[in-house]
Amino acid sequence: MPTEPQPPSHGDAWHGGWHAQAIRVPSPNVGPRPEGAPIDLAVVHSISLPPGQYGGDHIERLFTNTLDWDAHPYFDLIRGAEVSAHFVIRRDGQLLQFASVLERAWHAGRSHWQGRDNCNDFSVGIELEGLEHTPFEAAQYEALAHLLHDLAGAWPIAQAVGHEHIAPGRKQDPGKAFDWPLLARLTGWPAERFPPSALLDSSS
Fold first, then answer.
1. Which of 76, 81, 181, 184 is deepest in the core (most CB within 10 A)?
2. In 3-state terms, what secondary structure has residue 140?
3. What's the CA gap between 64 and 27, in Å, rounded?
4. Active site residues
């Protein structure tokens, strides 16, 4: 089981908008945030390329526009996509960063949360290597909790939600298997910092 989080040390966590412990893989698929936009939402996604296959460099290549679209039949369905996220957390907890938190990554698409559209403007996108509705690894929850602590220590992150919550009906990730109560315990955050009802869906 994941261990309880250690007290975060935010002072050395960031070099500008880059996390000191992340492997940098800069993506061209970024842009400026609107002037004055707060960075107050973390959006949790899941991704695997091809779906359900882990490891390899396909995610990195997708986010840096270097994916060989002919390398797998599935890739033809997303041919030409130009997307990114701020972070990817591998199955073993390894942290990759593709965009500075100060920049607007292209992860949420058409989205809405609590009266605001275009969540890319004010959110941080965090992709977990995995398949929606399929369990994630303990190391990923630990890494995610520490990342959220570090983000909240530097920016006014008020909530963490799933892609499914900001684009209902269009997106389903991270899915029913994502353990929101576990993330709440690991972060020590109160229920209001997570999606309404998400903490009620687990029997843990």
1. 184
2. helix
3. 5
4. 127
The tokens 């939402």 sit on which residue?
41
Which residues share a beta bridge with 79? none
What 3-state DSSP class applies to 176? coil
Query: Mean pLDDT across the stretch 98-119?
Result: 98
Beta strands 112-113 and 116-117, pairing class: antiparallel
Query: What are the pLDDT digits (tens) for 32-90?
Result: 999 999 999 999 999 999 999 999 999 999 999 999 999 999 999 999 999 999 999 99
Which residues are paired to 153 by β-bridges? none
CA distance 23 to 139: 16
Q: How many whole angstroms separate alpha carbon 174 and alpha carbon 182? A: 14
Q: How far is CA 67 from CA 13, 44, 59, 75, 83, in A?
A: 30, 23, 8, 9, 12
- Among residues of the chain, what percentage have pLDDT more than 90? 90
